[in-house]
Every structure is written in structure tokens, then in C-alpha cells.
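Fold these two proteins, one after the other.
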Amino acid sequence: MSRTNGSSSAARANQTTASRLGVVVVDPILTARAGTRLLVESQQDMEVLGEAAWADEGLQAVRRIRRRGRVAVLVSLGLTGEYDAFWLIREIRERCPHNVILAFGVSPARIAISRALFVGADGYLDSSTEPEEFLDGVRRALEGQVVLTGLPLDCLGPIAEGVERQCDEPPLTSREREVLSIAAEGLTAREIGVRLGGAERTVTTHLAHIYGKLGVGGRVEAITEAARAGLVTVGWVGDDDRRLIPAGA
């Protein structure tokens, strides 16, 4: 009798666990990752199945999960380097297509959101939104909806245009990324041209194309947007860091 009751209790426990929505959190910031874990685990219908600080570790955590379906992988757009957020989203989409992938962050560049959607994310959640809205976004995504939670309405059009643009061409060409990386050093258009062995007018043309693609009006904003989107690596760019760069164009 007791053995039967024990088996029934274990079966109910396994059924309850299997019915919960699984979440994997990949975020390089420890406190942010811990906060997301606590938020998710405060919900009776959710559980954290894994977490990681780096993209390659995140991929391993996802591949260890045996569950098929009802799993959302939250990928922070703060993942940078060779294995960045976009690499991870692409790898999960190719290797574990049954999982839902949600990019998240705090007010990232619109082009970063467009790029995340383009490489395979099912939606985006802004970390600064209300906890209930954030969790509702996870639930709706697991129901098959495309979610863009916490974004102002006037951002939706540019984000959609950004996805379409990336279908036609890369966000920035290798030459444009090179020009922008050098521009971040504070060089004028003439000095950039000298370093690259080209004309000043060619550099200003590159910069104009870059501004148009990123939807910005100047060099500082372009560098900041491109760095946040993972298109260039610039050490000084951060959420609260705006360093003036001499305008040479």
C-alpha cells in the first residue's frame, strides 16, 4: 500500500515537473542572471533548466536538455566576442529547432534586435519592462506567438525594416566595419583615408552609407549602435558612456 502511494506521488511529481515551462538563461552579468532565475522560479508554472554566462556554455546547457518542446532560451544581447548572442541564437536554431529563442536586454540598438530576429530569435523581451509583462512574453512565445515586449510602438517599423534589409544584404560590409572601427579611435575622415590608403571622399561616402544603414545621424551614435549590435568591437562603448569623437566628415 505504502509502495503504491510512493510510486503515485513520484509519478505526480514527474508529471508536474514535465508540465512546467522550461527556461534557460544565458547572460554574462551574474546579478542579472540570478535576478532572472529568481523571477522565473517564483512562478508555479515555470522552472529554470539551465543557465550560463557565455554563449558556448549556453549552447552546451541547451543541448543537455532532454525535453522536447515547452523550453524557452533567453539570450542576452550583452553577449559579445567571437561567440556572441547572434552566434548562439543561430546555433540553437540550427541544432535545437524545437526550442523557443528569446533575445533580451536593456534598451539595445534597434539593429541588434533586428539582427537577432533575422538569425533566428522568436522575439525580444526588454529587461526594463514590468516583471509580469516579461513573464507573459515568455509564456506567449511558448504558445507560438512572436513577441516584442517592452518596445515603444515607433520602434516596430524600423525593426521590421531592419530584418528585411538584412535579408537583402549584411548590416555593414567588412570595409564599412573597418572604417567605423578606425573612426572610433577619433581619427578624421582624412586620417582614416590615409590609414586605409584611400581618399577622404571615399571615407565620407562610407560613413554616409553607414549612417543610413544604422538609421543614425552622426558618428558617435553610429559607433555606439554598431558596437551594441555586435558589428564592431569598441572597448569604450557602454550603456552610459558617450565619448565625443572628432567629426571629420
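Now the second one:
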Amino acid sequence: MVSTTTKALRAIAYIRVSTDRQADEGNGLDVQRQAITAWAKAGGHKIVDWFSDEQSGKDALDPDNGLTTRPGLSEAFIALEGGQADALVVYRLDRLARKLSHREVWIERQQSKGREVISVTDDEMRTLVRQILGSVAEYERVVIAKRLSAGRAAKAAKGGYAYGAPPFGYRAEGKELAPDPGEQAILARIRRLRDGGASLRQVADTLNTEAVPARRGRWHSQTVARALERPQHGAGSARPAARGVKSTR
């Protein structure tokens, strides 16, 4: 990662070349050292020590290519884990290792200890991989959300309990709804008041006066309306509070 920290760090610098050709192409140790030095100066960081490896082409192609062939990096990690610095800084993340599995393990290990591994140049490939993984994760979230939505809709269409707060008068038991005796008694009381000609507001006032518990706070005309309008799963069709239920006469 390219550091975005605003605090001054004590850093251990690691530089590496794996072939003579890299030096000729502008990625030599001097170039890496200059870039890291410039980064430290710009951010007010302190380079407490430098470590380096110069591998032959044969070493660089070693399929293991771990710390056994990288004494400089091994010593850098020992110094870092010994508390000599807050971060390990490299020219590019591929200076740690070309093998991604090695690189990610080493970076994760340091980050788990609260230390940073910093590249002083933009790592285009790492950015690309991160963006691809982010896009894949977003795609998976969309697919999962659609599957859940389709499943809930199918269950609701069959009259089952799909999701959300159970309708007034019922409670969720596992994935099904069961009548709640207390709320069923309240519903019956509301229906009797409505059948007797009480408006929604009058029903709410009566329930509050009688200290009948609502699910949230006090009863209001809309609370009464929602209790009556919600479908009553598991007990046949809902009995709507007449078509004029939204009125608060």
C-alpha cells in the first residue's frame, strides 16, 4: 500500500534487485534508495536502518523464493518484529516477493501486529486486484440479495411468513407465525369498538385510557389502522377495518 498516514514513522527500508537487467532498466538499488529517501523526507519519517538483497537470476526464479534466499529481508523482518520500527518500506511491493502468496502472508503478519508495510510508489497491479475483488464481492452481494428477495416473495405469495415484524396479533416462531393470545384479544377489542362506530382516534384514546399496551409507546389512530389492515397470517384472510380504515372520523 502507499502510505496515507499523517504521523511520522520510524521505518526500516528494504531494497532489492533480482537481475542485472533491472538495474539497467532503472529499478536498481540506487533508484529505490532515492525514492524511499524522498518519501521519508516528504513525510517527516525516519529511516532507522537499511537492508538489501541482490539476487541472481537463478535465485529470483527459485520456486520457493522465500526468506531462505533473502537474508536481507529476513534480517529486516527480525529488526521490525524486534520493535526497532513502526513500518517496513519498499520501493514497490514486488520488491518483497514476486510470488503473491509470500507477499500477502508477510504483509498480513505485520499488519496483524499493528505495523505497516508501505510501498512508496503506486502499485498498479495491487490496485487492479483490489478493484476486481471489490467488484466480485459487490456482484455476490447483489446476487444474494436477489435470491433472498425472490425466496421471501415466493413464501409470502403462498401465505407464509417471509420477513420483517410479524403483523399485530401474531408472533414469529421459527419461520412461521403463530397467534399471540394477548394481541389477539386486543384486536378483538379494537374490532368491537370499530363495530360500535368508534373512529380510529376514539379507539386509540380508549386503548390508552384502559392502559392497553401497544407494541411501541402509545396508541395512535394510524397504529390502530395498521393493526387492522395488516394481513393476519395463519388465521385465514384478514378482516380489514372497512375500506375507510384510514379515516380518523
